[in-house]
Amino acid sequence: MTAGSGQVYVVTGGCGFLGSHLVRMLLEHEKNISEIRVFDLHLDESLRTLSNDRVRVRLISGDISRLADVQEALHGSHLVIHTASLVDVWGRVPASKITEVNVTGTENVLQACKEEGVQYLVYTSSMEVVGPNIHGDHFYRGNEDTEYRIYHKEPYPLSKAKAEKLVLEANGIKIKGGKMLYTCSLRPTGIYGEGHELMKQFHRQGLRTGRCVFRALSPAIEHGRVYVGNVAWMHLLAARQLQIHPSTLGGQVYFCYDSSPYKSYEDFNMEFLSACGFKIIGSRPLVPYFLLYLLALLNVLLQWVLHGFITYAPILNPYTLAVASTTFTVQTDKAEKHFGYQPLYAWEEAKMRTITWVKSLEVSGKDLKDVGEKSNYCCS
Ligand SMILES: NC(=O)c1ccc[n+]([C@@H]2O[C@H](COP(=O)([O-])OP(=O)(O)OC[C@H]3O[C@@H](n4cnc5c(N)ncnc54)[C@H](O)[C@@H]3O)[C@@H](O)[C@H]2O)c1
Ligand SMILES: CC(C)[C@@H](O)CC[C@@H](C)[C@H]1CC[C@H]2[C@@H]3[C@H](O)C=C4C[C@@H](O)CC[C@]4(C)[C@H]3CC[C@]12C
Q1: How many A from CA of 317 to the centre of ligand 2?
Q2: Is ligand 2 within 6 A of the CB of residue 86?
Q3: Residue 160 CA: which ligand 2 atom is closest?
Q4: Whose CB among 95, 250, 265, 280 lies 3.0–4.6 Å from 223's, allowing a Cys bridge?
Q5: Residue spans of the chain under pLDDT 70
Q6: What's the CATH number for 7-195+225-262+330-345?
Q7: Ligand 1 atom nearest 188 alpha carbon
Q8: Buried (b) or exposed (e) across 347-371, using 16+ Cβ within 10 A?
Q9: What is the ipTM of this complex?
């Protein structure tokens, strides 16, 4: 197939953690495309070099919350994978900004699909549109049909739930050219893998404490995690099959899953950090929950006091503690049944790829210098 004879895909948020893996996945495994438009507020110029004689990678700088930017990016395209989002549960940005990007931005994508005659939209949603809620209701090996007391108060999950609802309701609407728009929504659980910003923070934090991770969460609380490569693969397959079987996938939601083990958030992270000599201290939480909650409240107070002077957004706050302390695991085969999804990467490979990347953080030495670590000190 010569360049230019295939389809044009738009990946919003294509320079992000998931987005950049998705662009590479499309380049490697999707033979029906001739152009990938990477639409993002913050461009990663290295993606431009991924163009080859078959597929052009075109970087488009734009703001998803500006309709004109989105219309221009979607003009003449065939399909949109909408991953752009402000992922913030730490109070880094105002709630209004999260709504503007995640909800208004999604409205703009839908409006642009309608006006530009783009027939297919795959939306990157999140487990958070379901939970966990702050009541501590566990979601244990649940699926897309599991009843759950959904309760959102925080801006981020609220925005993802609103955006997903808009996307699903838009399935089947008439668009320019008399065609119909087909949409589906993918709900990843906690994504891990090469480039995960939060893992970088945990690594840096661990270096500051002599490669010791002090257990704060009960090991009995399980959190579903999914490898970024498998999330990208599921998006590719959903995009492909939405075009072939729109009545099957249209208006549907799918949890993203693979064979990553069910573990507590901390124990799962140690699967990678232990390869760098990190050790987790304590077989059960070292501090009582009420003390952790008080620390979380103190962080909220400090964030409020420092607001306007500096952005104080520590990992621990009442919301992240509640989420981390509530089991949320999925067990489903809906994506396999509807569009033949099977994880592309087995757990062992996903683990080794992630370990290789975490180890590269050490080789870069930047983290070590930042925390003044002199050697590979390992706590006893
Ligand atoms: N990371 C996870 O654990 C996780 C889990 C479930 C779902 N998700 C979802 O996956 C998607 C990608 O998340 P991620 O972890 O890769 O986050 P990320 O922050 O790495 O990527 C988001 C991208 O969106 C871009 N963006 C933000 N605001 C924009 C705007 N106004 N206009 C255009 N682009 C904008 C950012 O520049 C970034 O490149 C999001 O929709 C998120 O809700 C993430
Ligand atoms: C300070 C400790 C208690 C520390 O271990 C807390 C971990 C906590 C910051 C994370 C635990 C679960 C994470 C969330 C989960 O993986 C799913 C998410 C959905 C996604 O759409 C956005 C990110 C997140 C909310 C993710 C954020 C970090 C955690 C709360």
Answers
A1: 10
A2: no
A3: 21
A4: 265
A5: 1-5, 364-380
A6: 3.40.50.720
A7: 6
A8: eeebbebbbebbeebbeeeebbeee
A9: 0.98
